[in-house]
Amino acid sequence: MEGLVSSMEHILDVKDLTMDFGGLRAVDSVDLYVDKKEIVALIGPNGAGKTTFFNCITGIYNPSKGDIKAITHSGAAARLNGLKPNRVTERGLARTFQNIRLFQNMTVLENVMIGKHCRMKAKVLGALLRDRRTRAEELKAANESYEILEKIGLAKFSDEIASNLPYGAQRKLEIARAMATEPSLLLLDEPAAGMNPQETRELTDLIRQIRDNEDISILLIEHDMKLVMNLSERIYVMDHGQKIAEGTPVDIRNNPEVIKAYLGEDIDA
Amino acid sequence: MEYMIKSLKVAVWFMFLTFPIVVIKVNTIENIVIWRWHNMFYMGVGIFFVSMLWRYFLERKDRVGKKSAAERINITQTIMENPKILRTLIISVLTILCIFPFVTDSYQINIMTVALMYIVLGLGLNIVVGLAGLLDLGFVAFYAVGAYTYALLNYHFGLSFWVVLPIGALMATIFGILLGFPVLRLRGDYLAIVTLGFGEIIRLVLENWNEFSMGPSGIANIDRPTIYGFDMTLTQATIFIYFLMVVFTVFTVFFVNRLQNSRIGRAWLALREDEIACQAMGVGRTRTKLMAFALGATWAGLMGVVFAAKTTFINPASFTFLESAIILSVVVLGGMGSIPGVIIGALIMILLPEYLRAFSEYRMLVFGGAMVVMMVFRPQGLISNYRRKYSFHSADGRFGK
Ligand SMILES: Nc1ncnc2c1ncn2[C@@H]1O[C@H](COP(=O)(O)OP(=O)(O)OP(=O)(O)O)[C@@H](O)[C@H]1O
Ligand SMILES: [Mg+2]
Questions:
Q1: A24 lines ligand 1 (CB under 6 A)
Q2: Sheet holding A12-21, edge to edge
Q3: B47 and B161 belong to one structural domain
């Protein structure tokens, strides 16, 4: 059975991923995998290539080399190389952005409903006639989006214009929007950036809840070491585009290479 | 109240100021002076409302600065959220539109028909520019495609208005997609330049391909729309086209409203807001953009057919860049992405120059000035885009409006 096989496989399996920008090798043959219901962190000093790695996986960049495989939304294995970002999202990988990229002038609920877009079917004709099927679909999307907002704790803002939200709420809305696409893997790019300690604690709980209740695996980039060590089961460390270490939080904390990379950064700065 | 009095003063002042221009008319042949008092009245009423509006917006601009954005008061929103007021408003507007041709002359009807055409054109362009955020400066090309489709099919094959109407729309849709493909990756200024070029190409082809389009001399004697071969006098035909346009406008408002509150409408907005995030959230860029170009063009094509039928004569000079610019101004002035905004924008852009003949020579100057003022005071347009609200309070989870 398909299900049996896929439960043995990694939900995301990246091999030898390389991304060149002209002469600059931003990602240098990185291997990485995420298992079902796992929380994995990707850390590294500024400019290490973490965001570029995300962009390659999610189809925003087309990687120069390497293989990206994932268990898709439907449960089948698929190769993601060269797919457009919306196709990647359709296949069950959703992401947030390091520099918040909300739809500023749309309401919070509409932001989340955009995430539902790829799970909806209504065409132009349906929109014009607004037949029963279209109405039912709209209703379902709105309700499901609202439920997601409730889970994330943003329901009270649902009619607010996104740009009016406080910063922390905007970060959370990015997560809500990504969850609306019904992903099997959530890629979070610095979800705690700019949050205060209180908000960061809440976020830690939230991410754990998403993993536990929604059956979603999580790969996150984060500079907040406390959050990373608390949350993740495994950690990958990148520096200058290369993977320099991987392992459990304890391994990583005591890894001399990692310490050097971070200290080196401090000296440079 | 205080504003009323101030506005009244301004109105009286303006009536006095413009008195020599708009009221006194010297007939040099018979050596008599014609007193056009009604013009003074129009001027007074017009200025009064403009002044009120001006004050209202000024005050609101201040208020927005003080109050938090959340508690901002918005008349459009109040109207849109209250179905009773909205319904009354729609019914009264429709009643006025229906009575209008019977209480005025055909000159007025013609002007109103043109205004309605610009409303529909504006709403079409609004899909592309206002909703999807794609700055299209060649919109008139699709208008031309619709007009020439009817003119040529009518000239060569004698096809009637009603047969060509869907064909014209379809042709424009196809051209919309044709333009859409090459500009998929372009944004902002680049997109504007390419679409501008596209518009000019269509016009130049029409101007120079004599065998096909009869060049600059255009096509004359195009049939007016008829009903079952029923012969109409010119006045009847004028009224008929007027009502045709009323129906078109109502349908367009209805459909565009549905479109913008649908899955595809949301996708357009998202595309306008942030293209990369939009794609990353699972919205296909190619499809969404092409759909915007195609649907926008469809309405332009429809209006093109109506235009050819209305004027019975078309030539490439009717489809210059100026036309695109006017339609774009309608959208920008009224408020990008807002249906009531586009309607008001079209009325202002078309009716004002007609009724305030004094300005007609300075039309472009006034437009330019108005645009600058708009950009300063209300970059979002006269009526800003209203976002639909959902309510989840009822137990069965139904959402409203
Ligand atoms: N589109 C691009 N074109 C050229 N160079 C790029 C591009 N995107 C990223 N880079 C370069 O690739 C390197 C890695 O950048 P990246 O944004 O992936 O780092 P990061 O690990 O996410 O850093 P941070 O922690 O600051 O977010 C940087 O040197 C950056 O300048
Ligand atoms: Mg980054």
A1: yes
A2: A24-34, A12-21, A65-71, A77-79
A3: no
Q: Within an 8 Å CB–CB cutoff, is residue B273 touching chain A?
A: yes
Backbone angles phi, psi at B384, to 5 degrees: -80, 160
Contact B278 A158 (CB under 8 A): no
B188 vs A36: CA distance, rounded Å: 42
CB spacing of B277 vs A103 below 8 angstroms: yes
Q: Do the strands A77-79 and A234-239 form a parallel or antiparallel pair, or are they unpaired?
A: unpaired
Other beta carbons within 10 angstroms of residue A204's beta carbon come to 18
Q: For position A6, what pLDDT does the model report?
A: 43
pLDDT tens-digit map of A148-204: 999 999 999 988 899 999 999 999 999 999 999 999 999 999 999 989 999 999 999
Whether residue B70 lies inside any domain: the answer is no
* Geometric angle at alpha carbon B9, from B4 and B13, rounded to 5°: 145
| Contact list, B283 vs chain A (CB under 8 Å) | 86, 114, 117-118
Q: What is the pLDDT of residues B320-370, one digit of tens each?
A: 988 898 899 888 888 888 888 899 889 888 887 777 666 667 767 777 777
Number of domains in chain B: 2
C-alpha span between A180 and A158 (Å, rounded): 14
User: Are the CB atoms for B127 and B268 separated by under 8 Å?
Assistant: yes
| H-type alpha helices, A85-166 | 85-90, 108-116, 124-129, 132-152
| Ligand 1 contact via A47 beta carbon (within 6 Å) | yes
- The pTM score is 0.82
Looking at the predicted complex, does its ipTM rise above 0.85? yes
Domain finish residue from A162, A182, A202: A182
Domain of A23, CATH number, reads 3.40.50.300
- Parent domain of B339: 78-377
| Cα(A100) to centroid(ligand 2), Å | 12
Interchain pair B389, A60: CB under 8 A: no
Q: Do B285 and A86 touch (CB under 8 A)?
A: yes
Tell me the residue range of the domain where A144 lies: 101-182
Based on its alpha-carbon atoms, the radius of gyration of chain B, rounded to whole angstroms, reads 23
User: Which atom of ligand 1 lies at the shortest distance from residue A44's CA?
Assistant: 21
The β-bridge partners of A71 are A77
Q: B118 and B57, same structural domain?
A: no
Q: How remote is the CA of residue A117 from the centroid of ligand 1, in Å?
A: 29
A175 and A226 both lie in a single domain: no
Q: Is the shortest distance between the CB of A44 and ligand 1 below 6 Å?
A: yes
**Interatomic CA distance for residues B75 and B336, integer angstroms:** 17
Q: Say how many domains are in chain A.
A: 2
For ligand 1, atom 10: residue with the closest CA: A26
